Amino acid sequence: MVSIATLGIHGANEHLRVSDVTPPINISTTYRYDSDPAKLKKASEIEGLGEDVVYSRLSHHTGILVEETIGAITKSHAVIYSSGLGAFNAAMVHLNPKKLFIGQAYHGCHGIADILTRNYGLKQLPLDALDQLAEGDVIHIETPVNPNSWCFDIKHFADIAHAKGAKLLVDSTFAPLQDAFEFGADMVMHSATKYFGGHSDLLAGLLLTKDPEVKKCLQLDRIYLGTNIGNLEASLLFRSLKTFELRVRKQSESATAIVNYLVENKSSLKALEEVHHSSLQTEDFVAKQLNGCHSPTFSIIVDSEETARRLPSRLKYFFHATSLGGAESLIEWRCMSDTTAPPGLLRISVGLENVEELIEDLSQALSQ
Ligand SMILES: *Cc1c(COP(=O)(O)O)cnc(C)c1O
Fold it and tell me: Which atom of ligand 1 is nearest to the CA of 203?
C-alpha cells in the first residue's frame, strides 16, 4: 500500500492535464464544449460528473485533482465543498434523518441542526438517548471533540447505529489522519479549512464515503446546493496536500510534547489549572483510533477569567485568533467565539514552530 506522504504528492498524477509540475491556477467558470458535433450530448444523456467539465459550480479541474488526491490518501471517495459547514449541511441533506443524535460538537453543526429543526421539524436528541434510535436516523459525533480534544469511541457508536439501521457521521477535523471508517463510520467529514488546508488561507470542507454511488449523489446535490469549492481555493488546497502528512505529524508531536511539559511542570506554572488533550486519556480505544497521532489542538484552563483574557497578549509565538490547523500556532480565549466555553478556557492550536521555543513562550506566560 502506497503511503499517505507519497499519495499526497502523486495521488492524482493520472488526472494532471498539462506538463506543469504544479498545475496551472485555473479561474474559468465555463468551459468550451467539444468542437465535434457528433460528440455533443444532451443534459439528459449525462449521468454523474465525469472529467468533462462544463461549469465550475458543477466541477472544475483543480477540484477534481483535490478530490482524487484526498480520496487516495483517505482510501475513500472524497467530495469537496466550499467550507466545513457546507459539507455538514450536504451530509444532512443527503442522509435526511428524522432524528439526529448529537452530543458536544462544533457550534456551527448545532446551528445547522437548529435551522433544520426550525424549518422541517428535525428532532434532535442527545447521545444518552440512543434507546430511541430508529432506522434512517443519524448519530453525529465529533472525535476528538472541540475544544478539549477528548475522544469518543467510534466503534461503540457505529455498532449501536448499525444494529438499528441508522448511520454514523464522524467529524474528524481534530484528527485528520484518523481513519474513522476502520471503526465503522458510514460518512466522515472534515473542515479542510484546518489541517488539510494548513496555512490559514482557504476555506473548504470534505465529505468522505466508501461508496462510489454515494459520492455521485453528493456531487449531484452539490450542483444545486451551490457549494462546490472555488477554483482558487482548490489550487491552494492542492498545494497544501503535498505537505499534509508531514505537517500533521509534526504538529501532533509538538502538541503532545507541550501537553507533557505542562502536566509535568504544573506546580511551577502558577496560572495553570487544567490541561485537556487526547494524550491524557487512558482508555484503549483512544490509542487505536488515533494510531499514534494525537490531536495537534488542545485546551487549558487557567486560574481566572482575567488571566484567560490577558494570557494571549503575553505570548510571542502564538497569535490570538480563532481557528486551528495552520503553520502558525494560535491561542484563543475561547468564550470569544463559543458561548458554551468556560471563562477560563484557552484553546491552543500548535503550529510548525520549534517546539522548545513554543514551550519556553507558554511557560513564561503561565508563570507570570
Ligand atoms: C472549523 C470546524 C468546522 C467548520 O468548518 P468551516 O470550514 O469553518 O466551515 C466543523 N467542525 C469542526 C470540528 C471545526 O473545527
Answer: 7
Question: Between 231-241 and 61-74, two packed helices, what is the crossing angle to 10 degrees?
Answer: 30
3-state DSSP assignment of residue 211: coil
pLDDT 10s digits, 219-263: 999 999 999 999 999 999 999 999 999 999 999 999 999 999 999
* CB 143 near ligand 1, within 6 Å: no
The answer to whether the CB of 245 is under 6 A from ligand 1 is no
> Which residue CA neighbors atom 9 of ligand 1 most closely?
84
Residue 141: name the closest of 116, 104, 115 by CA.
104
Cell of 94: 443527503
292-348 pLDDT, tens per residue?
A: 899 999 999 999 999 999 999 999 999 999 999 999 999 999 999 988 899 999 999
Cell numbers standing for residue 250: 509534526
For helices 107-120 and 84-95, give the axis angle rounded to 10 degrees.
40
What H or E segment, with its residue span, contains residue 274? Answer: strand 272-276
In sequence order, what are the residues at sequence separation of 6 or more whose Cβ sits closer than 8 angstroms to the Cβ of residue 19? none
In sequence order, the 6+-apart residues with CB closer than 8 A to the CB of 138 are 92, 95, 97, 99, 100, 101, 166, 167, 168, 169
Provide the residue count of the chain. Answer: 368
CB of 186 shorter than 6 A to ligand 1: no
Spell out the residues 6+ positions from residue 166 whose beta carbon is closer than 8 angstroms to its own.
97, 133, 134, 135, 136, 137, 138, 139, 160
